[in-house]
Amino acid sequence: AAEEGFDAEEVDSELAAAASGPLPVLAVVGRPNVGKSTLVNRILGRREAVVEDRPGVTRDRVTYEAEWAGRRFKVVDTGGWEQDVLGIQASVAAQAEFAIEAADAVVLVVDATVGATDTDDAVVKLLRRAGKPVVLCANKVDGPSMEAEAAYLWSLGLGEPHPVSALHGRGTGDMLDAVLEVLPDAPRETFGATVGGPRRIALIGRPNVGKSSLLNKVAGEERVVVDEKAGTTRDPVDELIDLGGKTWRFVDTAGIRRRVHLQDGADYYASLRTAAALEKAEAAVVLIDISEPISVQDTRIITMAVDAGRALVIAYNKWDVMDDERRFYLEREIEQELVQVQWAPRVNISARTGRHMEKLVPAIETALASWESRVPTGKLNGFLGQLVASHPHPVRGGKQPRILFGTQAGTCPPRFVLFASGFLEAGYRRFIERRLREEFGFEGTPIQVSVRVRE
Ligand code: GDP
Ligand code: GDP
């Protein structure tokens, strides 16, 4: 009766979608201008990943959720960045590194009108070594007369080239079918696989905030085990570090330790690194350097962690140089720039002096506990019922949309599905989210609320 207006199948499919947990990751790689962004737009079915012609522009987002033939996955658009500043080889190598590290399957896009170049060959070598499934997309095959060109790409040794026109949509469906055949249902490193094992932490933040200093401090006298997977030349390495009586896996620490600060193209490289680390981690510790104003880069990294659905702790580093004036401004910056993550536990630390290091682990544990938490359906609906009674949705066009019932469809992070009798306005949705947090806590975890409206 509570499900009035929804048929059981509809409810089931909605819950299955929300409960699907971590999604497998598809990386789209290839040389500049072969049509990667156009293809990603096509896969997403909307113009979100805008084709960006300006060199030197770093996009805020690299990861998008997509769906094909009823299956959901993440698409990572590695395209459209500044080949001029970084150099084509380096930029393609960075993409390949990401694909190797964080993707579960790869689409290599080649421009069929150009044919295979040395760069394409180089990337094929890297991909082959990684052993990830690769689907070869022969792009810019805008018509049947071009298909012969696509056939030349058999020479890359990746099997059948799929002739596609990302621009016009030709062949993309067949190619995506081929992708789904090789894409695993769940990410390579599923969270379930680590039950009882060390929790995975991504230590992220813009260059010079103190990541390597913090890593050295926490690794310091403690046991450090470098976990290098045999037979790979990969650079990202996880370290197992004992902290607060437990062992933690800090993912992708090699890049932190190496401390290469690329001058040009550093943003691009750093974005890919951060995205890769987030894909592998359960919780993110974002470091902010308090000696400088909070920057767009800081908020972008926090947004990436939230979008990735990871547990989040914000560590304000270099507290040893804090003074009254800076403190005044910092608190205002936090109020202005970081309101949307007020729920994240905050620790004020100094990697240099070791100040408040002992607060890091409890903060991470709090965040992870929230990330995994589940609100029983009865309790949730009791709360929703009271909320709807005391704060009904405003009447619109003579109608009053009502929340009929809700359920938590998944965890890691908590995902809720609300079933409503009509469209719920954005303001009302935000209100519900805010009240959910007030009621159930969720300190340190993003939550997702989706609304299903009865047709
Ligand atoms: P990226 O650098 O690999 O992300 O490439 P873009 O997606 O930015 O595309 C580069 C250029 O190729 C743009 O001008 C696109 O419009 C064009 N392009 C992309 N796909 C196709 C296609 O299937 N056919 C044709 N003719 N042009 C395409
Ligand atoms: P990363 O690029 O994020 O790995 O940052 P690093 O660990 O290389 O640190 C960048 C600079 O900040 C170095 O000069 C560090 O000595 C300095 N630094 C790191 N942590 C602290 C801190 O807690 N206090 C102060 N005063 N300096 C720090």
Automatic annotation (TrEMBL):
Q: Name one Pfam family in it.
A: KH_dom-like
Database matches in InterPro entries: AAA+_ATPase, G_ENGA, GTP-bd, GTPase_Der, KH_dom-like, KH_dom-like_a/b, P-loop_NTPase, Small_GTP-bd
Task: Kindly state which keywords UniProt assigns to this record, in alphabetical order.
Answer: GTP-binding, Nucleotide-binding, Repeat, Ribosome biogenesis
PROSITE patterns given in the database record? G_ENGA (PS51712)
Annotated residues that bind GTP 1 are located at: 30-37, 77-81, 139-142
UniProt-annotated binding residues for GTP 2: 205-212, 252-256, 317-320
Q: Glycoprotein: is it a keyword of this entry?
A: no
Superkingdom of origin organism: Bacteria
Q: Which residues form the EngA-type G domain?
A: 24-187, 199-372
Do the record's keywords include GTP-binding? yes
Summarizing the function annotation, the protein's role is:
GTPase that plays an essential role in the late steps of ribosome biogenesis.
Q: Which PANTHER family match?
A: GTPASE DER (PTHR43834:SF6)
**Family to which the UniProt record says this protein belongs:** Belongs to the TRAFAC class TrmE-Era-EngA-EngB-Septin-like GTPase superfamily. EngA (Der) GTPase family.
How is the quaternary structure described? Answer: Associates with the 50S ribosomal subunit.
Q: What is this protein called in UniProt?
A: GTPase Der
Q: Which species is the source of this protein?
A: Streptomyces litchfieldiae
Organism taxonomic ancestry:
Bacteria, Bacillati, Actinomycetota, Actinomycetes, Kitasatosporales
Question: Coding gene?
Answer: der
